[in-house]
From TrEMBL:
Domain of life (superkingdom): Eukaryota
Protein name, per record: WD repeat-containing protein 76
Organism expressing this protein natively: Pomatorhinus ruficollis
Biological role stated in the UniProt entry: Specifically binds 5-hydroxymethylcytosine (5hmC), suggesting that it acts as a specific reader of 5hmC.
Molecular function terms, GO-annotated: DNA binding
Family classification: Belongs to the WD repeat DDB2/WDR76 family.
Biased composition (Basic residues): 43-53
SUPFAM superfamilies reported for this sequence: WD40 repeat-like
GO cellular component: nucleus
Region (Disordered): 41-64
Biological process, per Gene Ontology: regulation of DNA damage checkpoint
Entries under InterPro entries matching the protein: WD40/YVTN_repeat-like_dom_sf (IPR015943), WD40_repeat_dom_sf (IPR036322), WD40_rpt (IPR001680), WD_repeat_DNA-damage-binding (IPR050853)
Length: 450
């Protein structure tokens, strides 16, 4: 009667339990009977037992981050096993001018002298001013098909991931500079054709984010790392320091053909105006443009007072003449990006077009490189107003060339010789020469067949 609130099924079940308890009690199984009697009077509490902690010796070996160990991914397929690379330690580069002495000076001084003298010689030759134009697309596409990659035009030029590149404008000699994530700058005389054609210099302590040969004096190579902007002057054999900042640098571009002034961006979002003619290592003006992050800046090819800034989801055009410390408004904003923007550049002839790379994979282009590869930057071919190049995650590995309409015009590939992703690329301003850099410090040069 005391269980009238229970359902018929529960009362029947309770009756069975009680009868079983009496039966076991008659068998003098006291412990079982006591347990069953307990079930008839109260419900059993549900207690969750805590799992015993695993002993340290039972746990598998924890994976160590190769990135934190400063070990670069090798230029081999991921499924292929290889012994871990040896982590090298490099001293901090001091402030101020540095002699242009390569890492291997003691062993290869005559070869070093050869590459520096070549750089100086080709910088003294004045190239004829070729009129910028836009060649016929069919004729241009045919010329692309003649560019090939050969084994002698592949070389490991720097020791770590390629983060920036520049190509000398000389038409007689192919000289390429590459900067890596450890502050190294490699110079490679591709035309030399020997193992002694490449040498490594250490003008920076941190990642080299951007490089340019001076447009008015190609004997000057300017390189920007996280903390400093330097000018490698081969005529003086010195890496001069132009600007230094505690706010991390990300990119720079010249504001005039004389290359005396430059616009420099910071990862934190600000930009700065730098004048090489003024003494000291500070910028002339530091500017808040309202960005939370600025990855690239690029000056308009015709109207040099306009520059393009890109970062986060922002791509905006500013006028350097009206910049002030705070409260700057863009002249124009290119909207539509939904994820992080890696780069933005004006087209080379008129500047009427802008090509951007964004993690939202527009153009149906797979550009999500992950943390082990340098982020892609789409660059215009300086010889063609309507075409740009960008690395690709596609297999087989390739560098793709698009029209501004989004049409894929050509893919630079070689199944046997190109097996890695070329995130950073540079194109010669007058000749059919393309250089692609990968994440192991290796450069690949596509050029016309000899």
């Amino acid at each position: 009667d005391g269980y009238s609130h229970l359902s018929a099924y529960e009362r029947k079940r309770l009756k069975n339990i009680t009868e079983n308890a009496k039966f076991f009690a008659a068998l003098k199984l006291h412990e079982s009977a006591a347990r069953l009697n307990q079930l008839t009077t109260k419900r059993q509490s549900h207690v969750t037992k805590r799992a015993k902690p695993k002993k340290a010796e039972d746990e598998p070996a924890r994976r160590r981050s190769m990135r934190l160990l400063r070990v670069e991914p090798q230029d081999v397929p991921l499924l292929e096993s290889f012994s871990p690379a040896v982590v090298e330690q490099y001293p901090q580069v001091p402030v101020g001018p540095l002699p242009m002495v390569p890492e291997d000076q003691a062993e290869n001084s005559k070869w070093t002298e050869a590459i520096l003298s070549t750089w100086m010689r080709i910088s003294e030759l004045k190239a004829e001013d070729a009129e910028k134009g836009t060649p016929d697309i069919k004729r241009y596409q045919k010329s692309l098909s003649s560019m090939v990659l050969s084994e002698e035009n592949i070389r490991k030029v720097v020791k770590a991931r390629v983060c920036s590149m520049a190509i000398h404008p000389s038409e007689s000699t192919i000289l390429v500079a590459a900067g890596d994530k450890w502050g190294h700058v490699g110079l490679w005389n591709v035309s030399c054709g020997t193992e002694e054609g490449a040498h490594i210099f250490i003008p920076h302590s941190l990642q080299v984010n951007c490089m340019h040969f001076s447009p008015c004096n190609p004997a000057h190579l300017l390189s920007l790392s996280n903390d400093t902007l330097r000018c490698g002057d081969v005529t003086k054999a010195v890496f001069d320091e132009i600007c230094r900042s505690e706010d991390t640098f990300s990119c720079f571009d010249f504001l005039e053909e004389s290359a005396c002034t430059a616009i420099v961006s910071h990862w934190g979002g600000d930009v700065a105006v730098v004048d090489r003619r003024t003494p000291g290592l500070s910028s002339e003006l530091s500017v808040d443009i309202g960005f939370t992050r600025t990855r690239t800046v690029h000056v308009h090819p015709v109207n040099k007072h306009y520059f393009l800034a890109a970062g986060s989801v922002d791509v905006c055009v500013f006028d350097v003449r009206y910049l002030k410390a705070k409260g700057n408004k863009p002249l124009s904003s290119l909207t539509g990006h939904t994820k992080s923007v890696a780069s933005a550049y004006f087209s080379p002839v008129t500047g009427s077009r802008v090509v951007t790379v964004c993690a939202d994979d527009k153009l149906r282009h797979n550009n999500n490189t992950g943390r082990w590869l340098t982020r892609f930057r789409a660059i215009w071919d300086p010889k063609q107003e309507h075409c740009f190049l960008v690395g690709s995650m596609a297999q087989p590995r390739q560098i793709q060339l698009f029209q501004d309409t989004g049409n894929l015009l050509h893919s630079f590939c070689n199944v046997e010789l190109l097996s890695s992703v070329c995130s950073i690329n540079v194109v010669h301003p007058r000749q059919n020469i393309l250089v692609g850099g990968n994440s192991s410090g290796r450069l690949h040069v596509f050029k016309d067949k000899c």
